[in-house]
Amino acid sequence: MNTKILLLENDEDAFARLANYLETAGYPPDNIIRVTNVTDIHRYGREPLYLILADINNCPVSKEECLKTIQDVFPYTPIIVLTAYDDGATATYAIKQGAQDCLVKEEIDARSLRKAITFAVERQRVAANYSRLFSENPVPIYIYETETFRFLAVNNAALSQYMYTRDEMLSKTALDIRPEEDWERFKFLSGSLPDSYFDAGTWRHIRKNGEIFHVHIYAHSTTFEGKNASMVMAIDVENKVRAEAEASRKARQMQKVWESITDGLYVLNSNWEFTFVNKESERILRHPKEELLGKKAWDLFPNAKSLKLYHEYHRAVAEKVSVHFEEYVPTYDLWASINAYPTSEGLVVYLLDITAQKIASEKLQNEQEKLRAIINNTQDIIWSIDKNMQIIDANKPFWDYIYAMTGKTQQEVTESDFSKDLMKSWESYLQPAFEGKAYRSTIKNETHGHITYSEINFSPIYDKDKNIVGVSCFSRDITEERQHQEMVEHQNRQLKEIAWLQSHKVRNHVTTIQGLAQLFNHNDPNDPTNKQILDGIQATTAELDHVIKEINSKAQKLGE
Questions:
Q1: E strand intervals along 212-322
Q2: Is 117 helix (H, G, I), strand (E, B) or coil?
Q3: Which phi and psi angles does 295 have, rounded to 5°?
Q4: Which class for 465: exposed (0-12), middle (13-18), buried (19 or more C-beta within 10 A)?
Q5: Is 370 helix (H, G, I), strand (E, B) or coil?
Q6: Each residue of 243-292: pLDDT tens digit?
């Protein structure tokens, strides 16, 4: 084990006495290195020492400079300061400056010296461990004097973070690593730090190269080297601050996208409170967002609890499934198409006002019902037939028509009077009705070179046990109405095309936008796929705008 001891003593008698004590205490003379002037210790800077004994009062320089020189050359070696008399001041100064002990030379003997050396080495070892915890801590830590803000100590992580050498940083103050506009705020906080660790929040700091970055500060007041000081942990959170700023920017951007959606869109949290409402939702719900945000949906709309949407919303959240339905809202005399999607935080709802489409559809249906009533009340060809293709009953116009075709009366006509192709064709017309389907069909007739058109209604005939026993048929001549009917069918096709565009293309694009939104990575806003998602939303929104223009164009043509 290394037991070399450096003894700084210029008094011969004192040196001889101390050397004798050291030998008695178990430290052989060969391991004693004597220097008489503090400047000579530089020659032994590379020498591994066990301990330094130094009389700093008899140095040719001040005791302060003497002790500092020793510590600069041997920063990790324990030091025992020697003094000729017990004045207290030297001991206090030495201990505050980092010496491990202070002994009065006249009071030393071999036993006490050995004990003092043992304790000093142990104190240094413990102090070195604590020093290593400070200097090698991966978190940037520095200590500054509270009165002058001068740095007293900085660890390696702090030097790396601020890009200074140790000497450079120790020549500066805590103000030098802050923008000048933050100085007053810093001075106020510095003067009011508690003894325990205090979360001072986020601050701006400056590196040596002038770069401003954000740090999170934890600090507390302390005493260091006999001075009132503050110990600070400064954790670089620049990436976090930038990520939060980027997330906020993307959130604002996403909100703009949501606001641009022509459908109503609102978001409910797990407490059924509105957290987002776009302008179309404000219109549909007939409340400004100021009256909706933060309010519970069922408190604002208690009547909704009796509607289908109340149960569907709860089912979506409970079963983690999306729900899609249409519902009439009597409070607002409004039809809505609703798509609700569960999220980890609640429910996203797309709301489309389809009242106009419903009115158009009902109008078309009413027109068709009126037309059907007119057809059913006419005195045209009516007959019924069983599954064996035998006539059950028929009116006079039916038999007149048969006579015109075959030249035979009701009593004379038989199945052989009709071609096989005609009978097969009629079997195909009747088959859907025999299977329970009521329908009508337009048939082209050619009699003696004369072409006419007939509209025929086929309806199943049931017995008392609900078994199909035949088909009733109603036919009327629609030749003169053909042009009118084609016009109506043309309008119907246009209406159906508009309805198809609204119920398929529009919904497909809305579903695409929502699907992309659900793929957004909230846990890692820097995920490269997030940009692709936003690009996809933007492209889909443009396509949706094109579809809406197409619908408007077709609607205008319908009214011409």
A1: 212-224, 227-236, 264-269, 274-277
A2: helix
A3: -100, 150
A4: exposed
A5: helix
A6: 888 877 776 776 776 666 778 889 999 999 999 888 888 988 999 989 99
